[in-house]
Design goal:
Number of helices of chain B: 7
Number of domains of chain B: 1
Helix content of chain A: 55-70%
Order of helices and strands of chain B: HHHHHHH
Shape of chain A: globular
Oligomer: heterodimer
Structural class of chain A: mainly alpha
Distance between the termini of chain A: 42 Å
Number of helices of chain A: 10
Radius of gyration of chain A: 19 Å
Strand content of chain A: under 5%
Shape of chain B: globular
Order of helices and strands of chain A: HHHHHHHHHH
Largest sheet of chain B: none
Strand content of chain B: under 5%
Number of domains of chain A: 1
Radius of gyration of chain B: 19 Å
Number of strands of chain B: 0
Helix content of chain B: over 70%
Chain lengths: ~325, ~240
């Protein structure tokens, strides 16, 4: 019992510490592809450090939601981390507290609060970004549901620890059409939810074109740091679900020893790194879609996921 | 061991047909004429791969013939013929006006794909168990989606590709039902398709020269023009 709790908390620590690194590596690689020098891969840590030491300014007009939101945004990825396999392939202490659908709900809770907070201050750009994020969210949620339902239909469970074995035992199952199509749909979802390029430009500084970023424009100091850190972690958690549950459930610790779990950390980071390279390739190939083309992008993801369902059911 | 390999081949074939379905959706959703054509090339390659995998799985030599014919005729000769016959500027054109918006068209194509499974059910039930597989329903889905493309597109080249997608779909279900199609029939079908492409390409070129556009959706009314005034006036 005790080791399970310890390992579960270790997962949280790994996500907390490595999530900014993943974002730093991603932006550095993108800059290199664009023939630029780019900031150091540790820049997100420096940003967080700087922001934590700055004063926070809160508008007098804002309500408690504005003050409460950074904590929700910071806490929700951590709660999801407790439920999903980050380092181990056996269920840990909190694994049966909630399934993948609960994880989706918890993540969207953070999105819900940041949307409310963006509207709260009546900054003209905040509500615009908030309504756009909601649009992306409305369109991507059906895809999330269909992906989860197909996965649970195949595995007979929605607990991610049980699901991860099903697609690779025996290995032949890896190339079943429903698996490959689901992975494609989920990859498109990660791009949409993570605010990556065909949907949103994470490095853009033009307020009218922002989708995800403009929600946190009013924040400063510690609140902004928490929101940024939460954003890094959300992206990292989504990648962990994709890699450890759907795509490559290898390299996770199978033994219940501290050494095995520690050894799983570099393996997982290596997988994340390879996936980041893929994302850099995708992002460098495509250009950002116009706002109303996002519906087409997510419509394609929806069609892909439904094709996975009909390939599985019939 | 043999079982594992057979299972792998079955799964790979299912994957290839799944991707085939995805390219059919892509052809419905794609705006650029060039993108539609390259998706069609990918789809034909997938069809050839499916034929080769089925040939390996069931030790049927004639399916390799199908794969070879498909590999040569559609991905190579069709684009070449089109490039020779139709004017090059239609490749760069982007279809601005469509009958339906792209998400709506995709949803209808999705409904057609689900319908196709019900249409294919009697066929699957009628043949022996070893002939059942994802090929028949997905082939029927390709057929229906191709026909649907024909109704919603307004640009000449995507229309032609819709026709070819129908043929691809029919082929995909055909190769799984009959293992020993005479090679002559294969060649005849392949040549037929090429002739369709050739004639359509010339037709597109003529329409383009006369009207100055290949947006077929705008050619709404027929107009009788006497032979001598044909030179000076545009038909619209």
């Amino acid at each position: 019992m005790i080791p399970y709790i310890v390992f579960n908390l270790m997962q949280v620590v790994v996500v907390l510490l490595c999530a900014p690194l993943a974002s730093g590596v991603l932006s550095r690689m993108k800059e290199i592809v664009q023939s630029k020098q780019g900031p150091s891969i540790f820049q997100p840590y420096r940003d967080l450090w700087k922001l934590f030491h700055k004063d926070e300014i809160v508008s007098e007009e804002s309500s408690w939601i504005f003050r409460f939101t950074p904590y929700v945004v910071f806490a929700t990825p951590i709660m999801v981390t407790l439920l999903i396999p980050v380092l181990t392939n056996y269920p840990l202490f909190f694994a049966f507290m909630g399934d993948m659908i609960a994880g989706g709900f918890i993540l969207s809770l953070g999105g819900f609060f940041s949307t409310l907070a963006a509207i709260d201050t009546a900054n003209p750009y905040g509500p615009m970004g908030a309504s756009r994020t909601r649009m992306v969210g409305f369109l991507s949620e059906p895809v999330f549901m269909i992906v989860f339902f197909t996965v649970s239909f195949v595995a007979g469970s929605t607990i991610p620890y049980i699901v991860q074995e099903k697609w690779v035992t025996p290995l032949v199952f890896f190339v079943t059409p429903s698996h490959v199509l689901l992975m494609l749909a989920f990859l498109m979802l990660i791009l949409a939810e993570g605010g990556r390029i065909p949907v949103d430009n994470p490095t853009g500084h033009f307020e009218l074109a922002m989708i995800d970023e403009s929600k946190s424009l009013e924040y400063s100091g510690r609140g902004f740091a928490l929101i940024k850190w939460g954003g890094h972690m959300k992206f990292f958690v989504l990648m962990c679900i994709f890699l450890n549950v759907l795509l490559t459930p290898w390299g996770l610790a199978a033994d219940q020893t501290l050494g095995a779990v520690l050894l799983a950390v570099p393996k997982v980071l290596l997988k994340v790194f390879i996936f980041l390279v893929v994302i850099v390739v995708i992002e460098s190939q495509l250009s950002k879609l116009r706002l109303f083309r996002i519906a087409e992008f997510l419509g394609a993801a929806f069609v892909t996921s439904v094709a996975a369902v009909i390939a599985q059911v019939f | 061991m043999n079982d594992t390999i057979n299972q792998l081949l079955d799964n790979l074939n299912a994957l290839v047909t799944g991707l085939f379905l995805l390219t059919a959706f892509g052809i419905v959703a794609m705006r650029q004429a060039r993108g539609v054509l390259s998706l069609f090339i990918v789809q034909s390659l997938l069809l050839a791969a499916s034929a080769a995998l089925l040939g390996l799985r069931h030790h049927a030599e004639s399916l390799f013939g199908v794969a070879l014919v498909n590999l040569i005729s559609k991905p190579m000769i069709v684009p070449w013929l089109l490039r020779k016959t139709s004017p090059s500027e239609i490749y760069t054109r982007r279809e601005v006006s469509q009958v339906l918006s792209i998400p709506a068209a995709l949803l209808i194509a999705l409904a057609l794909a689900i319908l196709a499974y019900f249409f294919a059910l009697p066929i699957s039930n009628a043949v022996a168990p070893e002939f059942r597989g994802p090929n028949v329903p997905i082939g029927v889905a390709g057929l229906l989606i191709g026909a649907f493309t024909l109704t919603v597109r307004r640009e000449a080249l995507p229309l032609l590709v819709g026709l070819l997608v129908m043929e691809n779909g029919a082929f995909l279900s055909g190769i799984s039902i009959s293992r020993n199609l005479p090679f002559l029939v294969e060649l005849a079908i392949a040549t037929d398709g090429l002739i369709i492409v050739f004639i359509s390409g010339i037709l597109i070129r003529t329409v383009q020269r006369r009207v100055g556009s290949t947006a077929v959706g705008e050619l709404a009314n027929l107009k009788e023009v006497s032979a001598e005034s044909l030179e000076g006036r545009a038909i619209k």
